[in-house]
From TrEMBL:
Residues 65-197 form the Carbohydrate kinase FGGY N-terminal domain. One of its GO terms (molecular function) is glycerol kinase activity. Residues 226-410 form the Carbohydrate kinase FGGY C-terminal domain. GO terms for biological process: glycerol metabolic process; rhamnose catabolic process. This is Carbohydrate kinase. Keywords: ATP-binding, Disulfide bond, Kinase, Nucleotide-binding, Rhamnose metabolism, Transferase. It comes from Lentzea guizhouensis. CDD domains: ASKHA_NBD_FGGY_RhaB-like. Belongs to the FGGY kinase family. It comes from the Bacteria. InterPro entries: ATPase_NBD, FGGY_C, FGGY_N, Rhamnulokinase. GO terms for cellular component: cytosol. SUPFAM superfamilies: Actin-like ATPase domain.
Length: 437
């Protein structure tokens, strides 16, 4: 039996789990959970990164004896260090408005393969007042790892979300990083690499982009699957062995993010359960009763990826306004608004899966929904209906499981390629199947 600790920070909550691999199974036990979210300081949205570090320490204290520690979080955001290694300023939240009016320069996609998102690190750096004072940039999991161990590096899967990696060579692009201070970007390390030691325990690089870890734990039986990593975002796509960099792919806003074991996550970001989280925050109510009412409510379809929905704010109002502006029936009750969100997400899931297949040539026979959204039965059923494909839902803690499995492989508690790690997940996690109606 081998135990490891996985730190998994999502945009709305973080957790530390103790993962155990034994006899062909993998299990995670949550030892600490804490809220996460934006903090507005005057005009800027920040993360409370010191608060997160404190929670990480608390969680690691509760995890007991482990053979390794691994950290993953949401992507793109970073801290800047001065020449002595001290943090310069508090990291800014990717939903901050500082990049709202960015227009991307031409010729990027052919090099970095990334869909345009205004918040990609490279665009944040264009709006970063502290850049001239910075000697190094660390992405959030790498920053926390540095605080634990004193060692710096840039984990590859998360580094691909900066927009500064050459997707074909898998290295920092000399062309795209030319304008940055020399030495700003640390050496790359890869999932499974050693990343220092904390109180005698090795820290291991994992797929430190949460979506990379989540896709490791997709319990697929064959390679003919699509996945939806469903949480604050829905990350919807397929796994490939090489990137698709065609003009059609760029026009469809598909991204080629680096995955564990050299895979490419070919996907589109769909706005995801953020829409619902923000509605609930506004109404100050719980989700479950609303979901039951939404089963029988009438929804209106809106475009969940409209940038008006990106910043925090009065979400129900924005959804109604969108419907008004686009001559759609305006959902009135909260149940109707919830139903509109779920119908619109299901339609966006369908479109992304259809586009992924068309643009990559990969055929799909099943859709795996992993992450917290896999618990949302109505969303899973509506997604199966919209796609006309079976949906396999679970595990809800895919990200933590993927984090654990990559560590377990690094300490030789499991062996083999991704297919083998996925078999462990399939054998040990409860899954639920939805057939299209
Ligand atoms: C999901 C995620 C997405 C990324 C977004 C912003 O948590 O990591 O993959 O596009 O957050 O970082």
């Amino acid at each position: 039996m081998t135990a490891v600790a996985a730190v998994d920070l999502g945009a709305s909550s973080g957790r530390v789990v103790r993962g155990v691999v034994a006899d062909g199974t993998v299990h995670v036990e949550e030892v600490h959970r804490f809220p996460n979210g934006p903090v507005r300081l005057r005009d800027t949205l920040h993360w409370d990164v010191l608060g997160l570090y404190r929670e990480v320490l608390t969680g690691l204290g509760l995890a007991g004896e482990v053979g390794s520690i691994g950290i993953d979080s949401w992507a793109v955001d970073y801290g800047l260090l001065d020449e002595r290694g001290a943090l310069l300023g508090n990291p800014v939240h990717y939903r901050d408005a500082r990049t709202a009016s960015i227009t991307p320069p031409d010729g990027l996609y052919e090099v970095n393969g990334l869909q345009f998102q205004p918040f990609n690190t490279m665009f944040q750096l264009m709006a970063e007042p502290l850049l001239p004072h910075a000697s190094q940039l660390l992405l959030i999991p790498d920053l926390l790892s540095y605080w634990l161990t004193g060692e710096r590096g840039a984990e590859y899967t998360n580094a691909t979300t900066t927009g500064l990696i050459d997707v074909r060579g898998g290295r920092w692009s000399s062309e795209l990083t030319r304008a940055l201070p020399p030495g700003l970007l640390p050496e790359l390390r890869h999932p499974g690499d050693p990343a220092g030691v904390f109180e005698g325990v090795p820290v291991t690089a994992v797929g430190s982009h949460d979506t990379a870890s989540a896709v490791v734990a997709v319990p697929a039986e064959t390679d003919r699957f699509a996945y939806i990593s469903c949480g604050t975002w829905s990350l919807v796509g397929v796994e490939l062995s090489s990137p698709v960099l065609t003009p059609e792919s760029r026009a469809a806003n598909f991204t080629n993010e680096g995955g564990v074991d050299g895979t490419i996550r070919y996907l589109r970001n769909v706005m995801g359960l953020w829409l619902l989280q923000e509605c609930l925050r506004r109404w100050d109510t719980a989700l479950e009763p609303l979901l039951r009412q939404a089963e029988h409510a009438q929804g209106s379809l809106f475009d969940p990826n409209d940038p008006v929905f990106l910043p925090p704010g009065d979400m129900p109002d924005r959804i109604q306004q969108w419907c008004r502006d686009h001559d759609r029936r305006v959902p009135e009750s909260s149940a109707e608004i919830v139903r509109s969100v779920l119908d619109s997400l299901a339609a966006a899931h369908r479109d992304a899966i259809a586009d992924a297949q068309r643009l990559s040539g990969k055929e799909v026979e099943v859709v795996h929904v992993v992450g917290g959204g896999s618990r949302n039965e109505l969303l899973c059923q509506l997604t199966a209906d919209a796609c006309g494909l079976p949906v396999v839902a679970g595990p809800a803690e895919a990200t933590a499981l993927g984090n654990v499995l990559v560590q377990a492989r690094a300490v030789a508690a499991v062996h083999g390629p991704l297919a083998e790690l996925r078999r462990l997940v399939r054998q040990s996690q409860p899954l639920r199947r939805y057939l299209p109606r």
